[in-house]
Amino acid sequence: MYEFAYHKPSSVADAVKLLSADPEARPIAGGHTLLPALKHRLARPTALVDLSGIAELRGIRREGDKVVIGALARHAEVANSDAVKGAIPALARLAGTIGDVQVRNRGTLGGSVANNDPAADYPAAVLGLGATVVTDRRRIAADDFFTGMFSTALEPGELLVAIEFPIPEKAGYAKMKNPASRYVMTGAFVSRGPQGVRVAINGAGPCVFRQREMEAALAANWSPDAVANIRQSPDGLNSDIHGSAEYRAHLVTVMAKRAVADAG
């Protein structure tokens, strides 16, 4: 690692002040992406701002027709939350399949969403449920938040505080995961509810995206058969040693069918 300063603020205001004062400082929560990058000297921040001491970033609660989850909520907490299991069981199941036990007890919702790894699970749930990302300065609709590979609408010094998930009538998730890393090769999160019918695809492309043709089909007929004959174009999809773009395009249909079946 390169040398860096270390800060551990106790409030969002203090964290934002530190990040705004130093454009090269980086926030750290679970650290699953940043720490390996530091160890391999792929990142050289001037300072790390440890968010783990900020109580206002924690907590999971139901507020009327939505579930609000703090940015520091760990995957295991989301998976085991009675509020999440009761209102959006598909989200709880998704959280319970992330990585392994160690990852689930260290990684955070906010860190995963802000990082926007193409192979991460949570972005599919955020986009697939039409959630709202709450930061220290504004509210960002899911459709406007994810902008590209490892890129989001967050501005320099802006901190993700919580995510508000509308409670759907139905929701389901399915994924094909790499057997070694457990990262998503292709996944689909589907929902029907106050945000309409939504189908979010993760892992297949550089960034999570909505499959509009499948959404229209499911709006007319909510069943796995409705998406069975819809083919995703491989153009622009990821292609690597784990799977070609054509293979991932095929998986989009397979995972969408399974996600609808999971939703019931």
Automatic annotation (TrEMBL):
Residues in FAD-binding PCMH-type domain copies: 1-170
Superkingdom of source: Bacteria
Keyword annotations: FAD, Flavoprotein, Oxidoreductase
Protein name: Xanthine dehydrogenase family protein subunit M
Biological source species: Caldovatus aquaticus
